[in-house]
Specification:
Blueprint: H1 6-14, E1 20-25, H2 30-41, E2 45-51, H3 53-63, E3 71-74, H4 78-87, E4 93-96, H5 101-109, E5 122-129, E6 134-139, H6 149-165, E7 172-176, H7 187-200, E8 208-213, H8 215-219, H9 221-227, E9 239-241, H10 245-258, E10 262-268, E11 274-275, H11 283-294
Parallel strand pairs: 1-2, 1-4, 2-3, 4-11, 6-9, 7-8, 7-9
Antiparallel strand pairs: 5-6, 5-10
Helix pairs in contact: 1-11, 2-11, 4-5
Length: about 300
């Protein structure tokens, strides 16, 4: 079955028996507050706002956001205080607000007080192109600059896990490159071949992995026909594993700004899902990301 649309994720979120508790690190941001307010109004979440209380109230007033039903943690230590809410069992999802990325990641990865699991942190984006009725995952689009083979393997596992959470029991995963041919001149193509081999040998269960594949081959069946490249994933990728952050980030932002699309993202690899979007993203995108993150929580 195809991955769900955001409309379907919104419907699923509205059917949850228990609201998820979402803590926003640096909540004094209008798009963050608007997304949290809407999710709260829809009955999805219980918002927890971390930041200087006077700043949060000031931004909320300017943005005309009602803070009723939202708990505020008055703190200048945005990342530390937000992470503590998760560690101490008072929150289920962490959300990035007005906080520098290094500060938040430092708090998440703190050896004594963070949310480490030992797995590679990676951002997984769900991309929906309604006009073509296509939905697919992309990773890592935000954190791991030049993943080594172990890190790629763990990012692949996160892609598979997110796919399963979204209802796809056997996702088709494309290991992306600039070419479909393995060559020593492009080491990532050799790693793609090895990931496919490991999948065929029984690793990465619950998925079909093929690589290397260029974007056209992963996305469009006609490209495979023209290039005479076959395979279960060709033209039908549910998920795309990129060789590095440069390739992933350029691809996802090119789609975001040139195609009629909807998208949302979540960071995997910590003890809880992390809604971790760009400062340029809208409240709608943050709401999409919350709906995606809710599928990864254990509370139901």
């Amino acid at each position: 079955m195809p991955l769900p649309s955001f409309d379907e994720l919104y419907e699923i979120a509205g059917q949850r028996a228990i609201r998820a508790r979402v803590v926003a690190a640096g909540a004094a941001d209008p798009t963050v507050l608007k997304a949290l307010a809407e999710a709260n109004l829809c009955g999805w979440i219980e918002p927890i706002l971390v930041g200087p209380v006077h700043e949060i109230h000031s931004v909320a007033k300017a943005a005309e956001v009602d803070l009723s039903g939202m708990r505020i943690v008055d703190s200048e230590q945005l990342g530390v205080a937000a992470v503590a809410e998760v560690r101490e069992g008072r929150a289920d999802i962490l959300m990035k607000g007005q906080i520098n990325t290094p500060d938040l990641i430092r708090a998440v990865l703190n050896a004594d007080h963070g949310l480490r699991t030992g797995r590679t942190l990676c951002q997984v984006v769900l991309m929906e192109i309604p006009t073509q009725k296509r939905r697919f995952l992309l990773s890592d689009t935000g954190l791991c600059i030049e993943p080594n083979f172990r890190q790629k393997s763990e990012i692949l596992e996160s892609l598979i896990a997110v796919s399963h959470s979204l209802g796809e029991a056997l996702p088709k995963v494309a290991v992306m490159s600039a070419t479909e041919k393995a060559t020593t001149a492009m080491p990532d193509t050799l790693e793609a071949v090895e990931l496919q081999r490991l999948n065929e040998a029984g690793e990465f269960r619950g998925a079909l992995v093929q690589g290397p594949l260029s974007f056209d081959l992963a996305y469009a069946a006609e490209a495979g026909d023209k290039k005479r490249i076959s395979g279960a994933v060709t033209g039908a990728a549910d998920a795309m594993l990129f060789p590095n952050l440069l390739a992933a980030n350029l691809t996802v932002k090119a789609i975001m700004y040139t195609a009629e699309c909807r998208f949302g993202g979540v960071v995997c690899g910590a003890t809880c899902p992390i809604v971790f979007m760009s400062r340029a993203d809208s409240s709608t995108t943050r709401l999409n990301s919350l709906a995606l993150a809710l599928t990864l929580t254990v509370r139901s």
